[in-house]
Amino acid sequence: MSDPVVAAIPIRECGESLVDVRTDGRLLVDPRRQDPDGLFAHVRAGVAGRLLTAQESLPDGLRILFVEGYRPPGR
Predict the structure, then answer these.
(1) DSSP collapsed to 3 states, 10-39
(2) Domain for residue 72, yes or no?
(3) In the predicted model, is pLDDT for residue 2 greater than 70?
(4) Is 17 within 8 Å of 44 (Cβ atoms)?
(5) In whole angstroms, what is the distance from residue 71 CA to residue 75 CA?
(6) Which element (helix H / strand E) includes 48?
(7) What's the confidence (pLDDT) of residue 34?
(8) Domains contained in the chain, number
(9) What pLDDT sits at residue 1?
(10) Range of the domain at 39
(11) Taking a C-beta distance cutoff of 8 angstroms, is the pair 48, 16 a contact?
(12) 47 and 37 in contact (C-beta within 8 Å)?
C-alpha cells in the first residue's frame, strides 16, 4: 500500500473471498501500482460490489479509477 497511514492499519481476516476487479471491465483500473502477482486489483467481494454500485450511480462520462486494493498480510 503506497500510503503509510493506511498500511499501518492492522489486518484482520474476515473470511470473505477476494475478487479481481479487472475481470468484468466495469471499473477503470490504473496499472501503475501493479505488483508482479496482480494482487493490487483484488478486493473483498463486498467491496467490489460497493465500488460497482458507486460506479453505476455516477453521471454519464464519469468513472471510478481503481488504483490499489489488496494488501498481503506480510506487508
Answers:
(1) CCCCCCCCEEECCCCCCCEECHHHCCCCCH
(2) no
(3) no
(4) yes
(5) 7
(6) helix 45-57
(7) 84
(8) 1
(9) 56
(10) 4-66
(11) no
(12) no
- Asked whether residue 73 is assigned to any structural domain, the reply reads no
Q: Is residue 55 part of a domain?
A: yes
- b/e sequence 30-62, b meaning 16+ C-beta within 10 Å: eeeeeeeeebbbbbbeebbeebeeeeeeeeeee
| All three cell numbers of 68 | 490499489
The pTM of the whole model exceeds 0.85: no
Are the C-beta atoms of 5 and 65 separated by less than 8 Å? Answer: no
Q: Scan for cell 471499473, then name that residue.
A: 27
The three three-digit cell numbers of residue 71, written as one number: 494488501
- The set of cell numbers assigned to 11 is 489486518
* pLDDT single digits (tens) 32-69: 888 888 888 999 999 999 999 999 999 999 999 999 88
Asked, for residue 44, whether it belongs to a domain, the answer is: yes
When pLDDT is cut at 50, 70 and 90, the band that residue 71 belongs to is: low
Grid cell listed for 50:
460497493
